[in-house]
Amino acid sequence: MKKFLSLSFIVLIALFTNTANGQAVSDTANMGQGYANDVYYSFENGVIKTEPRSNWDIAFYTNVWSAGVIINDGNGVLAYTYPNADTSGWNSVNISGIDSWTPIFNSDTIWEDGAFNRNSLGHPDYGWGVYNTISHDVIGDSLYVIQLPNGSHKKLWLQRKNSVSNTYYFKYADIDGSNEMNVVLNANDYASKLFAYYSLMIGQVVDREPAKDSWDLLFSRYMAIVYDLEGNPSYYPVVGILQNANIGANRFQPVNEDFEDWTAAPFELYKTRIGHNWKNFDMNSFSWLIEEDLAYFVQTQEGNVYKFVPTYFGGTANGKTGFLKKVISLVGNTEVESGDNSFVLYPNPANDKLTITGLTQLSGNIIIYDQLGKQIYNQTIIPGQSSMNLDLTTFSKGLYIVRIVSGTTESVQKLMVN
Predict the structure, then answer these.
(1) ∠ at Cα 220 (61, 56), nearest 5°?
(2) Which residues make Cβ contacts (< 8 Å) with residue 134, sequence separation at least 6?
(3) 256 and 353, same domain (yes or no)
(4) Which domain holds residue 409?
(5) Strand partners, 12
(6) What pTM does this model have?
């Protein structure tokens, strides 16, 4: 017997796979002369915020169970693990021989993996400290020397993070111990953002980042691993495009100008999938050239897919990046037409677990479809069952459709997996 899908569900799947008929739109992000600013950009709303890069030195990832701490390496801040003592040597820190020390940098692929996490041995060791399974605190066991952009130095001790309260405790001072500051930073105050920022120069928290659900790309300067002509890697300051922690992207080259098959490769979630390698500096013309036959596709937090093609880079003179963007698959702002939506998805967005409640009066099957309309889950509702728990660890990040079919009726809801 042939099975016919309802009109509403056919329309819904079409929204997943539809390649939009809109035209490519030209836009720019301007970091200013000398790349002085960070530019937060939304595909839907354009530039969200332009913020001076120089107004912070260290920052703390706001997730409750994270111990990620980064430095402003894009502004010339350098961090060194103090090699001559553990935390018991706080009062005797000196910078004799600092020129022979190796600086530590943020990961150029993972937001959470900051410079202070680079010596991590894996859980429970997070680099700057070790997690205590009884108190749920990360206890700092290392000292650091920070070189600020003006050439001055500070000693820093990340003393503790209380994971339950999401609060960091740290202190810093001049190398000789003067001007000591003891800081308590509650990351919950900045839970809507990726990071809580702090300036060692002025001694205060800096609220600089827009809400993390408001932007897709960050145009910025940062340290990245660059390879020389012999293939040897080293960290080097670059200017590029970073994706928000909840944003996936893929890259295709060489492709024709009309290429739009964004499903031909999986989306990758690391922050520099676009990065800086879409341009190169030509020594003959002494100008920046854009890679040819190149296209990126970016999936936003709402599940929409945009084609993104860099077209211009102005360099240090104006810090301007030009690009084309085009909607390829638009689903995030579309209301789902469906029948009885009495069931509830919780949480939504979800991470690794999902609970479906409100099933008592429903019967039939729970079916989940991915963005291409492919069925990836099918489970019969047990009579009288009020809820069902699903393991999402095998689900890729993105938008899904949850459909309950019972005879000739159906209920449909959207599910976002982070």
Answers:
(1) 50
(2) none
(3) no
(4) 7-15+333-417
(5) none
(6) 0.78
